[in-house]
Specification:
This protein has 6 helices and 15 strands. It is an alpha+beta fold.
Length: 348
């Protein structure tokens, strides 16, 4: 997906701004993304006497298609080391889907306390949206309310990090993608990107703080731009599956999948022409289910869901591991849990 740069902003100065007038306030940021890969295994317990907090990264691809009657969401793993996990897809509410990427599963080895952002997200979103139904136009939107709620979830975790992180200045530590329908507006997809800043106070003791999220609108596209498959990857330089490009040109492998039935063929032709909102959801879902593994996605942990315009959230392929209940849990620290220091070489 090509993102047009409207404005260059120093992430350290990012503030939450109202998103109510979405056609005028889309924020497309140009970031020098370096690859944020799954981090190398944490040191053994005896070498981790300082109680360094460790994170398990969710890496891979999220693919979207906004159709006539639903928004199809798919996610599959990729780009991570052993111990990393696939992107977390979950219903944030009956009318909104969330996809979490990056450092979303945290454990404090000295206490064994674990926090999973995917388990906490529904409650965080519900609390953030407990506000009057009518708000002045200058008040924050629901996307911003959720963004700030997740910020407060991340903050106490990040405050415990006192080691230097191997992150480029503009690499997000966490990404949250929100998919929903807005009354009198239509379907939208936002990518909320959370970055950190570190300061060396003394003797390699680092103060770490989380920044307010950057809001990047992935859908709808600019006027006149095609409406087709959308892909978001974490790490950012993970090679894309390029479904949009592959259906728009002759490709024998994809042609066979697209021609598996008349309904699929007609629907894929509409997407290839940049008219995904004219295609029915069911045949596009069938196509994505076969095409994503064929393009290089991991079939074993492929997860798919739909946000139906009338029925709300629906699983198409539920995750193999259900998301546990919220609240901080206590569990043993896994020896393979990645460390936030001294990462290995980033994949090219």
């Amino acid at each position: 997906m090509v993102v047009r740069i409207l404005k260059s902003i120093d992430p350290a100065e990012l503030m939450v701004t109202p998103l109510a007038n979405r056609t005028l306030t889309r924020l497309f940021l140009a970031f020098a993304f370096c690859q944020l890969i799954a981090l190398p295994a944490a040191a053994p317990a005896q070498e981790n006497a300082g109680g360094e907090i460790v994170a398990n990264l969710a890496t891979g691809r999220a693919i979207f298609c906004v159709t006539k009657d639903a928004i199809i969401v798919a996610a599959t793993s990729g780009g991570g080391e052993v111990g990393s996990r696939p992107p977390a897809v979950l219903p944030v509410s009956s009318g909104r889907i969330g996809i979490l990427l990056g450092a979303i599963d945290w454990t404090a080895p000295d206490t064994g306390k674990a926090t999973r952002f995917d388990a906490e997200l529904p409650a965080v979103a519900a609390n953030a949206l407990r506000r009057p139904s009518q708000k002045p136009s200058e008040e924050p939107s629901e996307i911003e309310d959720i963004g700030v709620g997740v910020l407060e979830l991340i903050r106490p975790i990040v405050d415990q990090i006192h080691q230097k992180l191997d992150l480029a200045p503009d690499e997000p530590l966490v990404e949250l993608i929100l998919v929903d329908y807005v009354q009198n507006y239509g379907p939208e997809i936002w990518n909320l990107q959370y970055r950190v800043r570190q300061e060396n106070l003394a003797n390699d003791f680092w103060q770490t703080r989380i920044l307010r999220p950057a809001y990047v609108q992935l859908y709808p596209p600019e006027k006149g731009q095609p409406r087709t498959f959308i892909e978001a990857d974490y790490p950012a330089n993970l090679p894309q599956l390029q479904l949009a490009q592959r259906v728009a040109q002759p490709d024998p492998q994809f042609d066979r999948i697209a021609n598996s039935s008349r309904n699929v063929s007609d629907a894929v032709a509409l997407v290839a022409a940049g008219n995904s909102t004219k295609a029915q959801a069911a045949p596009i879902s069938d196509f994505m289910r076969a095409a994503i593994p064929a393009a290089g996605g991991n079939e074993q942990n492929l997860v798919m869901a739909a946000l139906d315009m009338n029925r709300g959230f629906q699983w198409i392929l539920a995750p193999q591991e259900p998301i546990p209940p919220g609240k901080t849990q206590t569990q043993p620290s896994e020896p393979d849990a990645p460390s936030l220091r001294n990462r290995g070489a980033r994949p090219r």
